[in-house]
Amino acid sequence: LEDIVENEERSASYVIGMIGRQARLISIAQSLLERKVPRGEWSEKLGVNQEFVIRKIGEQARRFSSQQITNLYHLLIQTDLAIKTGVVADEHGLLNLLTRAATLGGAHKS
After folding, report:
1. C-alpha–C-alpha distance, residues 4 and 70, integer Å
2. Nearest to 15 by CA among 108, 83, 63, 66
3. Fewer C-beta neighbours within 10 Å, C or N terminus of the chain?
4. C-alpha angle 107/65/51, rounded to 5°?
5. At what angle do helices 12-34 and 66-84 cross, to 10 degrees?
């Protein structure tokens, strides 16, 4: 975690942005599953070309509930705001985010 925070190319904002991107892709995939969109159309909808990545996103969409993804978005916003306003240091903010995100679970979709 220290290496990530100390590397300017991988700042806390970058990590938060990448987690947010993954949450967005999972949310889109959940919608595609609900609407029974054929898997062949997922690439265009997700903006992802690699079949392996699409398959993994689909697995994550089934693993997490939409409420868990919504909760993750809230954690991301809270962490980003706390870091940017100086309430917490980057490393502590990311550690707190990861710890709290782990409690959201993923083994049971509600």
Report:
1. 25
2. 83
3. C
4. 80
5. 160
Cα angle value 12/16/17 (rounded, 5°): 115
Predicted confidence (pLDDT) per residue in 12-67, tens digit = 888 899 999 999 999 999 999 999 999 999 999 999 999 999 999 999 999 999 99
Q: Report how far residue 70's alpha carbon sits from residue 93's, in angstroms, rounded to the nearest whole number.
A: 19
Contacts with 35 (C-beta within 8 Å, 6 or more apart), sequence order: none
Predicted TM-score of the model (pTM): 0.83
The C-alpha atoms of residue 4 and residue 12 are separated, in whole angstroms, by: 8
**Cβ–Cβ < 8 Å for 49, 40:** no
Q: How confident is the model at residue 105 (pLDDT cuts 50, 70, 90)?
A: low
Q: How far apart are the two ends of the chain, measured CA to CA in Å?
A: 31
Report pLDDT for 93: 92
